[in-house]
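U., I forgot to send this yesterday:
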Amino acid sequence: MNGQSGVETAELRIAAVVPCHNEEAAVAKVVGDLKAAVPDIVVYVYDNRSTDRTVDEALAAGAIVRRETVKGKGNVVRRAFADIDADVYMMIDGDDTYDAAAAPLMIKTLLDGPYDHVLGVRKQEAGADAYRAGHETGNKVLNGVVGYVFGENVTDMLSGYRVFSRRFVKSFPAVSREFEIETELTVHSLSLRVPRTSVEVGFRDRPAGSESKLRTYHDGFRILGLIVGLARHERPVAFYGMFGILSWIVALVLTVPIVFEFWETGLVPRFPTLFLAFTLVLVGCLCWTTGLILDGIRRSRHESARLMYLRYPAVGRPDER
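Result:
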């Protein structure tokens, strides 16, 4: 039996990826709590240019430590997903804000589905003040934007606590460099339409001596920019079609007075304006054409990703294989 979940995992390879940058105050507890909750888990701490004793603390706690010298959480996840071979992958921050005791339930949920993506939805513990000013509101706004763009309900897009199947990880391109990686993971699960669900997990304050690396406005704008980029790639007809319609509306507004004037006088005194209107009509047509072409490319890209995803079997207990 494995931890508190009552699920057999002895023959499953379970790997936890713990991205860390200057987390000497918390990383040992995260590693210890994960090993206590899931005895069969292999914990990989990926040090991302720490200048404190993060590496020493992680090694002392029994983690396998690897280093990613290119700064950014997205770069760490990209490297870890490429390097590690496992049946079940867990991603959890090294700041001890997430409840590691929820790991067995998340793994059991993944296996019981079977699912490919289990999201840990943060539930702030009583008396905690883990959300910095503006973070909770920003999270809700970004959840709403992604939900609107992709037509799916998104509960906690920015959570850093997740469990994945092997086939999800090996089909995930991981192009983000920094804290946008959680958004990319969410959008990948939505666009590929993988089986997914969520589990509530405890969320608490950072331990004393630990400092948040998030920059509210800087990271918020980066994530918003990523969402716009993903909308352009994943919904090209709607994205470019919107600009096409706007071009046509402006062209119509410019053309109507000219048409009325021509009807009354037989003259076109504002020829440059008419030329601009025709140009905007052409621009609108080009926008729609671009959207339709890119939508065909998107379909081909999704088919390729789906075929890569199907190369790997569904995650399951050893007795189900």
